[in-house]
């Protein structure tokens, strides 16, 4: 079993991913969704946490061997970024969604030298908005963003186009297709529900509003 399927299996096992095509969730964006992913749960399971830390570090080392700084995206990407940075013995910073309105007014917490090569770590990528804002903040501060890595990627076209236009490569440990394959194999969904889940991914912003 390849890494993407192994990771998907572990996310389903700890209920980090919940599939409910018959009773959709509502995301913060207002989108109706038959899936909800909460990778914060990984942190509560030591052996799976260790596995994800190791594989995330391998992913970074494989695609960005010259990285100098790991940057976690607040808030869910911070813990995964710290774990990977610790294993790789690299500097770590994290990026807020916006500047603080008090104190030093920082958006980037921690320190790096302008010109240093940075990899951004996310827990998951949906629209790609939070990751892109983090990349832009790091670039504005003089960082050289080499790419983004994540635990899970929904694979939305909106996110793909955004990263492609910015020239930022993205890699994830697992993805939506692998998740559905594992869920079907494990009997967690049936064929009709699989069709619903596949349809949702094609137009998530309008799905379920009819």
Polypeptide structure, described:
The protein is an alpha/beta fold and 210 residues long. It is 41% helix and 22% strand. It has helices spanning 3-13, 46-63, 76-88, 129-140, 157-166, 176-185, 191-202; strands at 17-19, 25-26, 32-33, 35-37, 69-73, 91-95, 108-109, 117-125, 144-153, 170-175. The protein has a 6-stranded mixed beta sheet with strand order 7-6-5-8-9-10, sandwiched between helices. The protein has a two-stranded antiparallel ribbon with strand order 1-4. α1 (3-13) crosses α6 (176-185) and α2 crosses α3. Mean pLDDT is 92; it is low at 100-104.
List keywords for this structure.
210 residues; 6-stranded mixed beta sheet; 7 helices; alpha/beta
Write the layout of secondary structure elements.
Elements: H1 3-13, E1 17-19, E2 25-26, E3 32-33, E4 35-37, H2 46-63, E5 69-73, H3 76-88, E6 91-95, E7 108-109, E8 117-125, H4 129-140, E9 144-153, H5 157-166, E10 170-175, H6 176-185, H7 191-202
Parallel strand pairs: 5-6, 5-8, 8-9, 9-10
Antiparallel strand pairs: 1-4, 2-3, 6-7
Helix pairs in contact: 1-6, 2-3
β-sheet strand percentage: 15-25%
Characterize the quaternary organization of these chains. single chain
Uncertain stretches: 100-104
**Helical stretch count?**
7
Number of strands: 10
The major pleated sheet works out as: 6 strands, mixed
- Cross-sheet strand order for the largest sheet: 7-6-5-8-9-10
Roughly what percent helix?
Answer: 40-55%
Span of the ends, CA to CA: 38 Å
Radius of gyration: 17 Å
**Overall morphology:** globular
Give the overall average pLDDT: 92
Q: Structural class, please? A: alpha/beta
SSE order in H/E notation?
HEEEEHEHEEEHEHEHH
């Amino acid at each position: 079993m390849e890494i993407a399927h192994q990771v998907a299996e572990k996310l389903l096992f700890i209920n980090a991913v919940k599939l409910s095509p018959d009773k959709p969730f509502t995301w913060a964006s207002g989108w109706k969704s038959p899936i909800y992913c909460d990778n914060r749960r990984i942190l509560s399971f030591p052996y799976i946490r260790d596995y994800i830390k190791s594989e995330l570090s391998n992913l970074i080392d494989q695609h960005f061997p010259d990285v100098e700084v790991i940057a976690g995206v607040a808030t869910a990407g911070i813990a995964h970024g710290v774990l990977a940075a610790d294993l790789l013995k690299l500097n770590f910073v994290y990026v807020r969604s916006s500047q603080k309105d008090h104190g030093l007014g920082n958006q980037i917490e921690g320190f790096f030298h302008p010109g240093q090569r940075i990899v951004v770590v996310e827990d998951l990528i949906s629209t790609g908005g939070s990751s892109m804002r983090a990349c832009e903040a790091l670039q504005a501060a003089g960082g050289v963003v080499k790419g983004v890595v994540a635990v899970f990627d929904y694979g939305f076209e909106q996110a793909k186009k955004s990263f492609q236009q910015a020239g930022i490569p993205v890699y994830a440990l697992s993805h939506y297709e692998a998740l559905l394959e594992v869920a079907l194999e494990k009997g967690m969904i049936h064929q009709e529900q699989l069709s619903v889940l596949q349809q949702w991914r094609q137009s998530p912003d309008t799905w379920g509003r009819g």
